[in-house]
Design goal:
- Strand 27 (365-375) and strand 28 (378-379) form a beta hairpin.
- Helix content is 1%, strand content 41%.
- The strands form eight sheets. Strands 12, 15, 16, 17, 18, 20, 21 and 22 form an eight-stranded mixed sheet that branches. Strands 10, 24, 25, 27, 28 and 29 form a six-stranded mixed sheet that branches.
- The chain contains one helix and 31 strands.
- With 438 residues, it is mostly beta strands.
- It has one helix spanning 354-357; strands spanning 2-4, 24-26, 35-42, 52-59, 64-67, 79-83, 86-94, 97-108, 118-119, 122-124, 132-136, 152-163, 168-173, 182-186, 204-212, 218-220, 229-236, 239-240, 257-262, 269-280, 292-296, 304-305, 319-322, 329-332, 342-343, 346-348, 365-375, 378-379, 383-389, 396-403, 414-420.
């Protein structure tokens, strides 16, 4: 509210031909320069997960409040998390002026819901070799998906320990089906590719050191960098990482690897954790709008040794670690939970783990395993696959004792047979011509 005092033309406030109007209130109105720039919806990771999100960008010279339920409720933060699939009415509004608002509508798409695999049950005779089970993922979300740096964002994170980190080099390698599978992320600092920077950092270790194709990331250089190395980079020593070298590589094909070189002798270290993330960034990739896949080696240290004075892939023997994103069929010994005991469309039950070792082809019965489809970081319900072992022959003829006739021609001889089996036994003394149960 603004108070206004009107004065006579000569500046006085007394009488003398003028009128004094004192303390007139005027309701002020905030200037409305609100601009809703974008509202970006990210799909659920998997169907029914309820982990979609909406991120809103707006500008104003006044504080802004945000709503995704058509103004039913407002908050002061512009990011909404843990949302289910569906359509949301976005409203942005100047906090002090309900008439100053802009609206739009966005849709969070459901993540993929993966169908269970098609499986085949097996029946074998007792004592037969252990069978190989088969399962097939027919869901289209499990189809091959080629990496495309123009529609996907890729990020690989390295964590580990090492003395004198300026000795290190970092690489990623796609599967053998790629045209040029090996990509240098950051060469050894004292190499030609890095401009012979020298061994310019005596610090130790690296933690969540990320290389990406995000154009907003930074330029990596070991010289003068704080340790442990951390941060996100799309270039190294002034050279932008050429992620197009991996274009066309099947994201789900076995053979993806990260490589860390140790280019100088007399130091030591190991690789502790790797996280590889590939995300759709435009709604046009084979990952689906907002879809992503993640490989994470886990919080338990890998303790993968960095090989001393082994620098260059192909000519040396640097530390190499597989980062395959699970796809297609995973095998388990239980209907829920547990650790996978196999991977791939075929699985031989005569393995070495305790779960596989429970199978015994010499014991009649039914053994059940479970197959699930794992595609786009989502999993299907598990389909049971049975192995039936037919009744086993554990017959053992212990003895057959013949007693002579008491006198010649008396015909009072006898045969007493002793045998064991888990099944009923019948007996013959005429080479199987006839059998009796005694």
């Amino acid at each position: 509210m603004v108070f206004v005092r009107l004065l006579n033309i000569d500046g006085s406030s007394g009488s003398g031909g003028g009128t004094v109007i004192d303390n007139v209130s005027i309701n002020g109105t905030l200037s409305c320069d609100l601009n809703l720039m974008s509202a970006i919806a990210m799909r659920e990771s998997c169907g029914g997960e309820g982990d979609g999100s909406i991120s809103i960008t707006a500008t104003s010279s006044n504080p802004i409040i945000y709503s995704i339920d058509n103004g039913g409720s407002f908050v002061s933060t512009n990011t909404f998390m843990n949302l289910t699939a569906g359509t949301y009415d976005v409203v942005v509004q100047d906090q002090g002026d309900a008439t100053c608002q802009q609206t739009t509508q966005v849709t969070i798409m459901p993540g993929p819901t993966i169908d269970p695999p098609t499986v085949v049950n097996e029946t074998i005779d007792c004592g037969d070799p252990a069978p190989t089970l088969t399962a097939t993922c027919d869901d289209t979300d499990c189809d091959p998906c080629s990496f495309d740096p123009s529609t996907m964002t890729i990020a690989v994170s390295f964590s580990g320990n090492h003395t004198y980190v300026s000795d290190l080099s970092f690489y990623i390698q796609g599967p053998s089906g790629c045209t040029t599978p090996l990509l240098t992320l950051a060469p050894y600092a004292n190499s030609l590719a890095a401009g012979f920077q020298g061994n310019c950092n005596s610090g130790d270790d690296f933690s969540n050191l990320v290389f990406t194709n995000d154009p907003g990331a930074g330029n990596f250089s070991v010289c003068g960098a704080a340790t442990p190395f951390t941060g996100t980079f799309n270039a190294a020593y002034g050279n932008t990482i050429n992620w197009s070298a991996l274009a066309g590589c099947d994201i789900y094909e076995t053979g993806w690897q990260v490589i860390v070189g140790d280019c100088v002798s007399f130091d030591f270290g190991d690789l502790d954790r790797i996280i590889l993330t590939i995300t759709d960034n435009g709604g046009t990739s084979c990952l689906g709008a907002g879809g992503s896949v993640v490989y994470d080696s886990g919080v338990t240290d890998l303790n993968e040794p960095l090989n001393d004075n082994e620098c260059e892939p192909g000519t040396d023997n640097p530390a190499t670690f597989a980062v395959n994103i699970p796809n297609q069929v995973m095998w388990y010994s239980s209907s829920t939970g547990g650790t996978a005991i196999g991977e791939g469309s075929s699985f031989n039950v005569a393995g070495t783990t305790a779960e596989e070792g429970a199978f015994d082809s010499n014991t009649a019965g039914t053994y059940t395993y479970y197959a699930e489809c794992a595609c786009q970081s989502c999993t299907s319900d598990r389909a049971p696959v049975t192995v039936t072992v037919n009744s086993c022959c554990d017959l053992n003829l212990v003895s057959a004792i013949a007693m002579r006739e008491s006198c010649g021609g008396e015909g009072d001889g006898s045969i007493s047979i002793t045998a064991t089996s888990s099944n009923p036994i019948i007996y013959s003394i005429d080479n199987g011509g006839s059998f009796v149960s005694t």
